[in-house]
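Render Sialate O-acetylesterase in 3D.
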Amino acid sequence: MFGDNMVLQRSINIPVWGNATPGSLIVATLGKVSTNAKTDKDGKWILYFSKFGAGGPYDLKISESGKPYSAIKLTGILIGDVWLASGQSNMEWQVQQARDAPNEIAKADFPQIRFLMVEHDIKLTPQSDFLAGKWKLCDTNNVKQFSAVAYYFARKIHKEQNVPIGIIQSTWGGTPIESWTSREMQLSSPATKAKILANDTLVRNDFAKDSLNMIRFWDIVYHPQGNADKTVPLPDYDDSGWPAVEMPRVIKDFGIGKYEGMMWLRKRIVLPRSFAGKNLVLNIGHPEMNYSLYFNGVEICKTIWNSNPKQSYTIPAGLVKNGENTVAIRMAMLWGGGGLNPPAENIYIGDENTKISLAGKWLYKTNVEPAIPKIHNYQNYPAMLFNAMINPLIPFGVKGFIWYQGEANDTEAYLYRELFPMLINDWRIHWHHGNLPFLYVQLANFKKEDPLPSESEWAELREAQTLTLSQPNTGMACIIDIGDANSIHPTNKQEVGRRLALTAEKKAYGKNVNASGPMYKNFVVKGKDIIISFTETGLGLAIRNSASLKGFSIAGDDKKFYWASARIKGDKVIVSSDKVNVPIAVRYAWADNPVCNLVNKEGLPAVPFRTDGWKGITQK
C-alpha cells in the first residue's frame, strides 16, 4: 500500500502499518510530525498520524528502534482525497481504449493525481498485502493504462476541489459482485451461504492448473492449430460436409448449445467482372470476439482482444478473381459471444459503385482445431477478489468508493437487490469509518432495441441499482443515454466520470449541485391518464433531441404493455394510450437498450423506472 508518490487521506487520523520484530518500537515521521507504536507478538504494528490538511510533498520515515539499518524512507507523498475505484471491465476500461484517447493522453499532465493499480490476484483467504502495484503520477505515459472512468472522475474532482487526488484501482473484468464481498458477510445471508461454503473444497493446486489452462486457452485463440490457417481458408478446401447457418447472427442463435472454442466460417461469392483489377472494400459489420479474416486463402486481418478492431478492410486487387471467390473467418466463440452482428446491410464486399451482400448462408465447423481447455475462472468465485484485492487495502484512509459493476450479475438481477447493499455494508464495516460515500454507475443501454415493450434482465438490474439508493450516503450516475448497442463497453467514459464526479460533489463535498436526472416519485390515475411525479427535476423537465417524449409504456390489469404517448406538464409527465382504457402501471426506459429522451434542463437523463411490482424474469 505504501510507496513513493502515494496520496494519503486528509482530515482523518492517517493509518500506517507493517511488520517488524515482535515487541519492538516503531518510530514514524511524516513531514515534521512523529508518532510511534509497538509491534505485537506476531510482529504486526499500526500507528496513526494526527489529521493533516491537503498539501505536500512530504517524506515518510519509518524505523525500528535500535535498528537504524532498518529505516525506510518514502518520498513525494501528498495529502488529499483518496478514492477506491472497483468493479468489472467498464471500470477497468483504460484511457487508451476510450473515446478521443490520443487527445486525452496528450494533455494528461496532472502530477497531483496519482493511481495505485492493484494487480489481478485470487486467494482462498484474506491477505495482508496484494500481489503487485505501485503509485504512479498521472502523465502522458502512465495515464494510458489508468481506468478511464476513474481518471475522468479524478480530473474533475481535482479541478473542483483543488486538492491532490489518489485513486486506488482494484478491478477485474467480467467478475460478479460476490467475488468482491467477504466470506463473513456472505455467510450471513441464506442467499450466498451455500456458494461461499463451496469454496472450502478448493485448494491452491486448482488455481495453478487453471493458470496453465489459461495459457493454453489464449495460445489456441491467437495461434491456429495444426496449420489450419494454411488450409481451411483456401478456395479449394473441401467444406462439403459443413453445416450452414444464416448470417448475421450471434452464437446463441446457431443452435449449437453452449459451445466455446474456435469456429471456422466460409462463404463462396461470385463477383462481377467490373470488380476485376480493383481494390475492394470488405465490411463484416461488428464481429463478436477475436477473429481473423481471409480472402482467397490470404489473411487480411487478425484482431487482438480489447483492440477495438475495424469493421471494414481493403482487399487488394491482386487477390480478386473473376467469378467465384472465398471469404473465410476464424472466430473465437467465447462466453456466449461470437458471430456476426446485425444489421445485414453492414456485411458486404464492393467498390465505390456496387455492393455485393455477404449476408445469407455461410458454412461453419466447430471441431477443425483442438478444443480449448476448460477454464474455471476462479476470479468469479465468492470472496476470491475481496481476499486478494480488497482486504490488503484495509484500513488505508479513503474519502469513499466508486463502483461500476453489474453486467456479470444480469441473470440474477433480483438477487442483486440484496447482493449490492451487502457489499456496501461489508466494505464500510471493514473500514471502520461509518457510512463512507459509496458512488456507483448504473448500467448503460446495450444490445438491440426492442420494437415492442418487453421484459429485460438489464432493466431489472438497473432497478436493483436504483433501489440501493435507499442505503445511506450513496449516489448513482445514470448513463442510460450514452451506451452502445453493439458494445458492452461504451467509449464515452468522459461523461461517465463527469456524472460520477457530480454525485461526489453533492454527497462527499456538500456542494449544492444537481447530480441526478429526474427520478420517479409517485403516480396517480386520472381517467385514461397516468400522471407521474418526479424528484431531481432541477431547472425543469425537458425532452432531448425530439419533439415528443419516448420510452414510456402503459398497461392495464392484463399486464400487457403498449407504447404510450407522453407529455410534460410542470414537474410531471402525463402518460396514456388508446389501447389501454383503464391504466394501472407505467414503465419508462424498461429495456436492454431503450429509446428514451426525458431529461432535466441540466441535461441529465431520467432514471429508468416502473410503477408496478409484478414478478420479473430474474425473480426466482
